[in-house]
Amino acid sequence: MKIITDKAEVALEFPDKAYIGTFGQTAHFEAHTDATGVALKLERRDDQKRRVDMHVHYGLFADILDELARSVAARPQIDDAHRQAMLASARALVDALKAKR
Question: How far lies 43's CA from each of 19, 27, 28, 48, 56, in Å?
Fold first, then answer.
């Protein structure tokens, strides 16, 4: 697992309760693909041990990427450091997908 360099916030809501957690720079993450989709794991190993596992099938992941593109286009510019990091990562994903033709 890799150390989280920024921050993630997770909220899971049910009709009668909600679970909210943050994962910062002392937490870890793992992301990978499998035969059907994309898996993401966030994990805190401190005194508030918690873990979030999520699996999204490729079709939904593509829809999420489309929505992110629309959202980025519609909002004011993201700060340069985060924009450059996202751009480099998006290019790496495109390159990896092209290599699998």
Answer: 15, 6, 5, 10, 18
Q: Which two tokens stand for residue 16?
A: 């009668």
Residue 101: pLDDT above 90?
Answer: no
- Judge whether 8 and 41 are in contact, CB under 8 Å: no
First to last CA, the chain: 28
pLDDT of residue 15: 97
- pLDDT for 47 equals 84
> Looking at the predicted structure, is the pLDDT value of residue 84 above 90?
yes
